[in-house]
Amino acid sequence: PSGDTNTPSGDTNTPSGDTNVPSGDTNAPSGDTGVTAADAAKALNDATAKAAKATYKWTRSGKFTKDVNVGALTSIRNGIISGVVKNNDYPGDDHYTVNEVVGGFLGIKDLSGTFTNGKCADLNDNDSNKYKLKAMTLTANDIANVSVSGNTYTITIKDTNTPDANSAWAHASNDYITVDEVNTEIAKAVSDKVKVQKDGTSANYKNIKLIAVIENGKLTSLKYSYDMEATLVIKAGLTANGTGAAHMEASYSDFKY
Hints:
By secondary structure, the protein is of the alpha+beta class.
């Protein structure tokens, strides 16, 4: 025969393209710009729900980027605070400043410890609750930006002014201060003659960044940082407005599930 009809011009069993091979795996986070805020929120919420029950190491550091200042009356308040202080919870021997009192409650010092079941032996119950890894309840609306590379999620939380339990930063952490907390601690450690008033007092948390590494659904490390700008109304004999700013960083690592 001039041509063998059994010899096909093209093997129809050999596909030009295998439709079962996806052009891109939407579940692969490496460099995946398609991860939405909702995806990231769910990933962190699920991972931290497990990690919060684990044993892990924790560190935290804070520093003033702008001293607490109540203007020309700062030195008067510093003198009053020095005169009424009752113990040595704060740096120095016999001179206590607005910075030291307010800074002590904001955690303006280096801290570290090991948490087990949400408790750290080196901290009191209030501080353990404030600094423990939180089982997050993030929503897409809390997140300003997200990027994913490999197993690492880098998330920017929306700025939060004077956080409460329903605010964006509070959905990720308990590491924020309230006026009631400051006054309770000042009354115990210093005197009820020194108060921060609610009216006119505010704290703006901004540049809030989370960096989380999640492997097979488990959190292996988490770091966060933020800047806080505060306006305080401090009453210590006299009353005046004050301002201050601080930068905070914390990390959780070495998880044992």
